[in-house]
Write a structure and sequence with these properties.
single chain; about 325 residues; alpha/beta; Rossmann fold; 2 domains; nine-stranded mixed β-sheet; five-stranded parallel β-sheet; 14 strands; about 25% strand; binds flavin-adenine dinucleotide
């Protein structure tokens, strides 16, 4: 009986440590071992992170830029070799493609959008978000083997009471001549640092009134050394590039400071920023949902408030 977290790529994705922390707690509850499958060439300090969460084995499989079909084949091969009973994924965009297909190939249940998981006797209980984050659903899984994909935005990292001394094993996972069904012929443009890694983000929404007013968001972000994001409403309206979208179907961010300008605070938007340490909201509607999440709120017209904030930030920089 063991729990495995499956990861891949050349760097540790945001949310991995949170997923590992949850996996560690679950494995202690079940009295099961915890292994971490890493496919690719991750060069970050994985041993320290693994030790903090009680990982027994770091299972490394090499692969260069594997696509989803190759990843599915490799993870299925791993599961046939090691027979884990709980197969976990940190729900990145890529994991959404891979986790359900791994479950289908193994013939086991899959639960997506999990944010809490625990043992209930021999069963597994998984709490998930549903309907775009508007409600929660609870699944009881009696099957002996299950795949669960974890949304990590609301999870906290808690180290295991006893760190482990992880053993690294090189595992050979034949992908068996897989041909990827899709080929990336033109990757999305991404310049500079990633929004997902930013410590300060200023995001704008429809309350800005026009595409031209989005410059206020960019200016404040520049003055306070942050990056700029957007709600889906203004991405859909073509004011900003989709790479800036924060939320359920956009980027999942966890900055220290998130400034929401003219954003209502719909659950689908909050799914991408509610893990921020401090949220500041500017909205002219005092009943806007965003104020339920914000530590600091300014009720007012953002077209009046933003120039003042930009001026104050600029003065603070001199
Ligand atoms: C399946 C699904 C996935 C989705 N994924 C995402 C996602 O990833 N990201 C996302 O953002 N949304 C997502 N949405 C859309 C989401 O439900 C909301 O429609 C969207 O977030 C609203 O954007 P908004 O807050 O900018 O606009 P609105 O809801 O129109 O809100 C505008 C806000 O601005 C305020 N305002 C107006 N004028 C001013 C002013 N002058 N000064 C200050 N405040 C003002 C208003 O009071 C209001 O609160 C998704 C929806 C679905 C169904």
């Amino acid at each position: 009986m063991s729990v495995v977290l499956c990861s891949w790529g050349d760097a540790i994705e945001g949310g991995t440590e949170e997923a590992l922390s949850l996996a560690g707690r679950l494995s202690r509850d079940r009295g099961a071992g915890l292994d971490w499958l890493l496919i690719g060439n991750v060069t970050d300090d994985v041993t320290g992170m693994a030790a903090r969460h009680g990982v027994a084995h770091i299972d490394r499989a090499s692969a260069s830029a594997p696509g989803p079909d190759t990843l599915v084949a490799m993870i299925v091969a791993y599961c046939s070799q090691h027979r884990p009973t709980v197969i976990l994924f940190n729900q990145t965009l890529a994991a959404r493609l891979v986790a359900p297909r791994v479950a289908a190939r193994l013939g086991v249940p899959v639960v997506m959008n999990g944010f809490y998981i625990e043992s209930q006797g021999s069963e597994l209980e998984v709490r998930t978000t549903a309907y775009g984050g508007d409600t929660h659903a609870v699944y009881r899984l009696p099957a002996p083997v299950n795949v669960v994909s974890i949304v990590t935005t609301t999870l906290r990292v808690e180290a295991a009471p006893q760190p482990s001394v992880p053993v690294t094993r090189e595992v050979a996972l034949p992908a068996g001549g897989v041909t990827e069904r899709w080929t990336v012929i033109s990757a999305a443009r991404s310049e500079g640092p990633r929004l997902e890694d930013a410590d300060v983000i200023v995001s704008g929404g429809r309350g800005l009134g026009s595409a031209a007013n989005y410059r206020l968001v960019r200016e404040l972000a520049e003055q306070i050394g942050g990056m700029y994001g957007a709600s889906r409403a203004i991405v859909d309206d073509g004011w900003v590039d989709s790479s800036r979208q924060v939320g359920l179907t956009g980027k999942i961010t966890r900055p220290g400071l998130y400034v929401a300008v003219g954003i209502s605070g719909a659950s689908q938007h909050m799914a991408g920023c509610s893990a921020a340490k401090t949220i500041v909201a500017i909205n002219k509607d005092r009943d806007a949902s965003i104020f339920r999440y914000a530590r600091y709120g300014i009720v007012g017209d953002c077209l009046d408030v933003m120039p003042e904030l930009i001026k104050a930030a600029a003065a603070g920089n001199h």
